[in-house]
Design a protein that fits this description.
The protein has helices at about 30-35, 40, 50-55, 95-110, 145-160, 190-210, 210-220, 280-290, 295-315, 320-335, and strands spanning about 1-5, 5, 60-70, 75-80, 85-90, 120-125, 130-135, 175, 180, 235-240, 245-250, 255, 265. By secondary structure, it is of the alpha+beta class. The strands form 5 sheets. Strands 3-4-5-7-6 form a 5-stranded antiparallel sheet. A two-stranded antiparallel ribbon has the order 1-2. A two-stranded antiparallel sheet has the order 8-9. Its EC number is 2.7.1.172.
Length: about 325
C-alpha cells in the first residue's frame, strides 16, 4: 500500500487472490503475561497506544498520525515520531487474542534471524473495547521481491525454526477470519487430517449443509498416510498464509513477509497458497538448495492446496467449492480410497 512514496507491511484484508487476503499469527518471548502485564497501567489511559509510544517506545514527540489504507479486517495507522515510525493495527470488535496470535507468529519468525518480518512491540486492549497491536514500520521498496532470495530466505527460516513440542503452536490463531486450531500433536498426518482438513470440512457442513464435500473429504483425510511414506517430516516454523499480498521487499530489496498465520508443520505445507503466490522456477530452485525436495512432493502438493481452497470456500462461498472438490476427487482416485 503506497503511502507518501513508501509502503508498509501489516494491514489485514482477507479475500480472494484478486482482492486481498491475509491475517495472522507470536513466540514464547511474547507470552500473554508479558504482553498484558503493562496493560494494567495503560488501560487507565484514554489512549494506551500513544502512552506506550511516548514511554516504552522511547519517543518524546508524535509528529504525525496517518491512516494506511488497504485493510478490511483491521484499521491500520502509521505513527511518525522522533524515535522512528510505528505501525499500529486496531480492531474495535475483537479482543487481544487475535493480535496475541499475530505477535507470537511475527516474533517467532523474527527470532530466526533469517527473513525480514516486522518486529511486534505491544498488544493490548482499547478502553472503549477492542484491541491493538504496535509493531515496526517497514518502508517497502519498488519491487515485490527477488524470487531466488525469497526462496532461500524462506528455506532458511524453515530450517532454523524448529519445535520440540511437535506440530502446532502455543496458541490458536486465524487464517483470514477463520479460526486455525493449533493443538500440539506428535504426528503430522494426524495434525493435518484433523486440525487442517477436518476442521475446514466441518465448517463447510455447518455453514452450507455440504455433506458431499464433508464425506468425501473425511474419506481422503483418513487415507493420506501413504503420501508420506519414506518422508522425513520435522516441525518447521511456517508463515502459514504465504501469498502475493503477504510478500514484498524493503528498500534494500530484501524480501519481507507479513500478516502470518504461524504454526509448526511440514515445510511443504508452506506452499498451500502457491496458486496465488506467484512462486517461479527460481524460487523453488533456491528453496530446495537449502531444504532438499523429498520424494513424492508433487503428489502432496495438491493436498496442501486443499486446505486453503476449503478455507476460501468457507469464507467466500461456492466459487471455490469446485476447486476443492476436484482436488479431493483426484486425490481419492490416486490413492484408490
Amino acid at each position: 500500500m503506497v503511502l507518501g512514496g513508501a509502503v508498509h507491511v501489516g494491514f489485514s484484508c482477507f479475500s480472494s487472490c484478486i482482492s486481498s487476503l491475509s491475517n495472522g499469527g507470536l513466540s514464547r518471548k511474547f507470552s500473554s503475561t508479558k504482553l498484558h502485564k503493562p496493560l494494567a497501567m495503560a488501560s487507565m489511559s484514554n489512549d494506551p497506544i500513544r502512552e506506550w509510544i511516548l514511554s516504552e517506545g522511547k519517543a518524546t514527540e508524535i509528529s504525525r498520525i496517518s491512516p494506511v489504507g488497504g485493510g478490511c479486517i483491521n484499521l491500520a495507522t502509521r505513527y511518525d515520531t522522533d524515535a522512528g515510525s510505528f505501525f499500529v493495527k486496531t480492531n474495535r470488535n475483537i479482543g487481544p487474542s487475535m493480535f496475541d496470535g499475530e505477535a507470537l507468529g511475527l516474533n517467532a519468525m523474527y527470532e530466526t534471524r533469517t527473513i525480514r518480518v516486522p518486529k511486534p512491540f505491544k498488544v493490548g486492549s482499547l478502553p472503549t473495547g477492542g484491541s491493538y497491536i504496535i509493531m515496526e514500520f517497514i518502508e517497502f521498496g519498488a519491487s515485490r521481491s527477488n524470487q531466488s532470495e525469497l526462496g532461500r530466505k524462506l528455506a532458511e527460516m524453515h530450517k532454523a525454526g524448529k519445535s520440540n513440542k511437535g506440530f502446532g503452536f502455543d496458541v490458536d490463531n486465524t487464517i483470514g477470519s477463520t479460526p486455525q486450531i493449533n493443538t500440539w500433536t506428535s504426528d503430522w498426518v494426524e495434525f493435518y487430517a484433523e486440525h487442517r482438513l477436518g476442521y475446514q470440512l466441518k465448517l463447510a457442513r455447518q455453514q452450507y449443509g455440504d455433506s458431499t464435500i464433508y464425506e468425501r473429504g473425511q474419506r481422503l483425510a483418513k487415507n493420506i498416510g501413504s503420501l508420506f511414506e519414506g518422508v522425513v517430516i520435522e516441525p518447521c516454523l511456517l508463515h502459514g498464509d504465504l501469498w502475493s499480498g503477504n510478500i514484498t521487499s524493503d528498500r534494500n530489496g530484501e524480501p519481507v513477509i507479513l500478516d502470518p498465520a504461524c504454526y509448526y508443520g511440514h515445510n511443504e505445507a508452506e506452499f498451500g497458497m502457491s496458486w496465488c503466490a506467484g512462486f517461479g522456477g527460481s524460487f523453488y530452485i533456491a528453496y530446495f538448495e537449502v531444504m532438499p525436495k523429498q520424494p513424492g512432493f508433487e503428489k502432496r502438493r495438491d493436498l496442501y492446496l486443499l486446505y486453503h481452497y476449503l478455507n476460501h470456500y468457507n469464507l467466500f462461498g461456492s466459487s471455490y467449492r469446485s476447486s476443492a472438490m476436484s482436488i479431493i476427487d483426484d486425490c481419492l482416485l490416486m490413492l484408490k480410497a
